[in-house]
Structures are given as C-alpha cells and as structure tokens.
C-alpha cells in the first residue's frame, strides 16, 4: 500500500506492508544509489526487539547509532552525540539517514538530518502506532529542559517505510497510546470511521490486516492536511484536537507516567464536552465515547491526581495560548473541526463537568 504526501516543500511516499523491509527499502533505490553512506539511528529498546530482523533484511551495508530508549533520546546531549557520530563516520551531504523507531527516534533523527551540514536526506522507518502520525508531515524536534519539542524544524523525509511486523513487539500501553491518534484522525475526518472504531470489540488488539487499514486511513488524513498546510498556519491546527488539555495532563504527570496518546484520549473527551457548547454534539455522544475509551483501558483515573489549578500552569504554557486565552480545536460534528478561543474561566467550568462525568462513569 502507498500513500503519497505532497507538501509545498517536498513530495514523498509512505509505503505500508508486512514483513517487507528489504523490498520497501529497494523502492527508494534511485535515491539510495547516490548515497556515499547509510546510517541507521535507532533506540535501545527498538534495537533489542527488532535489531536482528532489521540486520537480516536491510538490503545494504549500514552503520548503526543506538540512542537511549524513548523520550530520553530527544535531548541536547543525544543530539550532540548523534552529530559527533556522523562527523566521525565522515558523513557528507550525500549520506542518508534512517530513523528506525517510534516518534522519539523519528523526531531526534529528523532534527539531526535537518541540521547536519545544513541538511541531509532521511527516511522514516516507524515502529510504533503513534509514529503513523509523527513520521509523516515533517515536524522534527528535541526537548529543552523548559519545554517539550521547543527546539526543532520543519523538515520532510525522503520517504516513510511502515512495516507492521515491527508493531508486534510494541508493549500494549504503547499500542493504546498510538491508537488514540488514530481515533483523533477519525474524529477530525469521518463519522462513519469513528463509528466503526467505537463499535469494535477492542481497538488495542486489531489483526494485522485491520491494523494496516487503520494506519493507512490515519496517514491519509495526516497527508491531506499537511499537503494543504505544511507549517501550521491553518488546517494543520486540527491535528491538535485533544492535545491542549492532554498535554497539560501529560506534563503535570511528568513525562512518561501518562503516555502521550493516553493523555490525548483524556483530552479528546474534554474537547467533546467543550464541543457540546459550540457544536452539534451532545452529552449522550460524549458519554458513549467515554465508555468506549474506558473499555479500551485508557487511564482516566489520572485526571483525579491533579487539580485544575495544577493543570493551569501547563495549559498556559501551550504554544498556542496568548494572554490567558487558549486556542482549542473543537468539533462542530464528527469530521468537522474548527478552532475557537476559550478563556481560562471556561476551561475551569468544563474541567468541573469532566470530573463529574468521570465520577458517574468510573463509579
Ligand atoms: N513530529 C510529529 O509530528 C509528532 C507527532 C506526535 C508525536 N510526536 C513525538 O513522538 C514521540 C512519541 O512517539 P512514540 O509514542 O512512538 O514513543 P517512543 O518513540 O518513545 O516509543 C515508545 C516506547 O516504545 C519503545 N518502542 C518503540 N517501538 C518499539 C517496538 N517496535 N518494539 C518494542 N519497543 C518499542 C521505545 O523505545 C519507547 O520506549 C514524542 O516525543 C512526541 O513528541 C511527534
Ligand atoms: Zn499527539
């Protein structure tokens, strides 16, 4: 399966398959033939789980640089170490980098590729469900002690190779986290798709074929949006559905305690409550959605660990907040997102409604 991505700055393809790494890499042969060196960036967990398969199926010689697992690779220190590695390997502008891992490896690698000698080509080989989102669209970043993703660049890859075989070793919590972004893509694009997800026995244990279809559908939504708006001036903002409140929960918990997508799922329910006021959605739908999320194991208890006052600091840190007014993505109906400024006082009211609804549903 293929999904073309056509941004203003660059055109490329996402190729999707199962157990097809060698074949998939070869589809980029015309580009790789010109490379003087191939480098693979990965993280320790991914390499431990999938390194053998990768070595056995990657069709060319390469050098590997193994980063610390997950978010720990998105630091200035690792950025520096990665650049040092490329220099020591005598990489040139003709070298090619592969990001083999989840969103964290992808973000770090993309930023290294964007800046090494002012830019070298790179290919994303995502290994998480969440990375169907992060590997497409060209946002790259590392974290600063004062804020997540604060240092980065828009830099598109030469391609994305998505082999669903890699997902097989992904811990269930990470599956759950990544699936929240699939659900988000459904919510901003298609009522029937969301209905299908909400009707599924489980969204955490899809078959390989089902999973590939869900990922493809998610990538198509993302590709369409970034082709209209590469640098988040307009419609790309819709991808932030659930992220304003979600980021606050994620940050208040301390990164890692509540996984990104778990927090996004919490934020999605918050946005549904807010959307009841400004769109056509009603409480029955919000309640049904919350039941669906709880059934699939999303950790809503986390909300009760923080007061609204604790969340406020983080809400106001949002890149989109100005003078105490937040910019929320809301839904007119499923598939029809829009952006609306919301004052902090109203956020507090919704937060109270949210806690009450959670008490009713969680018991
Ligand atoms: N650039 C973007 O547009 C964008 C969008 C969304 C999120 N992000 C970023 O993505 C990151 C989150 O990505 P993620 O959820 O993929 O997390 P991740 O990359 O941290 O991976 C999650 C965990 O699973 C491990 N792992 C990954 N693949 C595995 C596999 N196949 N088998 C076993 N273990 C595996 C990792 O080592 C890590 O511990 C965040 O840093 C976030 O800021 C970026
Ligand atoms: Zn996200």
TrEMBL record:
It is found in: Cytoplasm. Zn(2+) binds at residues 181, 243, 260. Signal peptide: none annotated. It comes from the Bacteria. Pfam families: DHQ_synthase, DHQS_C. Its cofactor is NAD(+); Co(2+); Zn(2+). Pathway: Metabolic intermediate biosynthesis; chorismate biosynthesis; chorismate from D-erythrose 4-phosphate and phosphoenolpyruvate: step 2/7. InterPro entries: Dehydroquinate_synthase (IPR050071), DHQ_synth_AroB (IPR016037), DHQ_synth_fam (IPR030963), DHQS/DOIS_N (IPR030960), DHQS_C (IPR056179). One of its GO terms (molecular function) is nucleotide binding. It is an enzyme of class 4 (lyase). GO terms for cellular component: cytoplasm. PANTHER family: 3-DEHYDROQUINATE SYNTHASE, 3-DEHYDROQUINATE SYNTHASE, CHLOROPLASTIC. Belongs to the sugar phosphate cyclases superfamily. Dehydroquinate synthase family. This is 3-dehydroquinate synthase. It comes from Lysinibacillus sphaericus (Bacillus sphaericus). The lineage of its organism: Bacteria, Bacillati, Bacillota, Bacilli, Bacillales.
């Amino acid at each position: 399966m293929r999904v073309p991505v056509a941004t203003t700055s660059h055109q490329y393809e996402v190729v999707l398959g199962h157990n097809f790494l060698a074949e998939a890499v070869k589809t980029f042969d015309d580009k790789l033939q010109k490379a003087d060196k191939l480098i693979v960036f990965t993280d320790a967990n991914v390499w431990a789980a999938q390194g053998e398969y990768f070595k056995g199926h990657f069709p060319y010689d390469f050098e590997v640089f193994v980063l610390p697992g997950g978010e720990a690779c998105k630091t200035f220190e690792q950025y520096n170490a990665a650049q040092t590695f490329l220099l020591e390997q005598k990489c040139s502008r003709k070298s090619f980098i592969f990001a083999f891992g989840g969103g964290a490896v992808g973000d770090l690698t993309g930023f290294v590729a964007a800046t090494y000698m002012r830019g070298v080509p790179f290919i994303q080989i995502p290994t998480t469900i969440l990375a169907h989102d992060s590997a497409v669209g060209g946002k790259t970043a590392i974290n600063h002690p004062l804020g997540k993703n604060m240092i980065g660049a828009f830099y598109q890859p030469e391609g994305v190779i998505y082999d669903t075989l890699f997902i097989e070793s992904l811990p269930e919590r990470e599956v759950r986290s990544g699936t929240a972004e699939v659900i988000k893509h459904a919510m901003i694009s298609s009522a029937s798709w969301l209905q299908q997800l909400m009707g599924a026995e489980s969204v955490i244990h899809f078959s390989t074929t089902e999973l590939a279809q869900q990922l493809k559908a998610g990538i198509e939504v993302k590709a369409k949006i970034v082709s209209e708006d590469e640098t988040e001036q307009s419609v790309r903002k819709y991808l932030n559905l659930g992220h304003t409140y979600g980021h606050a929960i994620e940050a208040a918990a301390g990164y890692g305690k509540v996984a990104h997508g778990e927090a996004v799922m919490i934020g999605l329910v918050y946005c549904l409550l807010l959307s009841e006021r400004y769109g056509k959605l009603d409480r029955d739908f919000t309640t049904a959605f919350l039941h669906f999320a709880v059934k699939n194991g999303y950790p809503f208890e986390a909300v009760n660990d923080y007061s609204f006052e604790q969340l406020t600091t983080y809400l106001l840190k949002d890149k989109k907040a100005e003078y105490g007014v937040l910019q929320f993505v809301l839904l007119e109906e499923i598939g029809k997102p829009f952006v609306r400024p919301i004052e902090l006082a109203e956020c507090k009211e919704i937060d109270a409604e949210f806690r009450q609804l959670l008490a009713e549903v969680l018991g």
